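Sequence only, no structure available. Ideas?
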Amino acid sequence: MEHLLILFFATFSAASMATVPPGLLNLNAAKVGVEKGKFNGIVFSIGVSTMIMLQAYLGVLISKFLYRNPEVIDWLLKAALVVFAFFSIYFFLVARRNKKGPDKKVVISKRNSYFKGFFLASVNLLTIPYYSGLNAMWNASGWIQFKFADILTFILAAGLGTFSVLYFYVFYFNKLDAKSNRFSKNSNYILSALMLLLLVITMIRIFYT
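Reply:
I predicted one. Tokens follow.
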């Protein structure tokens, strides 16, 4: 039982720290919260966290395979190049389109917010090797075994750690935007620049390491 508590808090902390730096998921959670309301931001975050738990489970199942076949990680990095390039262009075009026309009131359903979060998390291909590596480290430390209770604890901690940070982003930016609407006006430009930065970093990792 003691090792499950250690496993939970270690994985929760690792998932939280991985979600803290501004990225595709947390900035979109903030964007949804600002533009569609806090509740939709939370539903979006739940969608993200659901996919993170699935990816964490997949990471447990293939951790040994990834470490025996490092070329798979190279393939994931190359696939990430396409994803980052696509979203960099997409968010830039959305920002340009919104700048040209007047603001429109958009009604979005809770279901759409959930599946948007679920989808965006699914294209974040670097999550699987992250949780695979994390699982391998915890296994070497004796904190996790391939048992149902251990795997369930690992998955739940990954999802809850991610959700806790997204929840903070939703409420912090919503409160900030109540005083100034700069974030809602420039959020797509911010996301476009971030995707471009991630594209450059990934290219460096592929070609210079």
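The chain is about 85% helix and 0% strand.
Hope that gets you unstuck.
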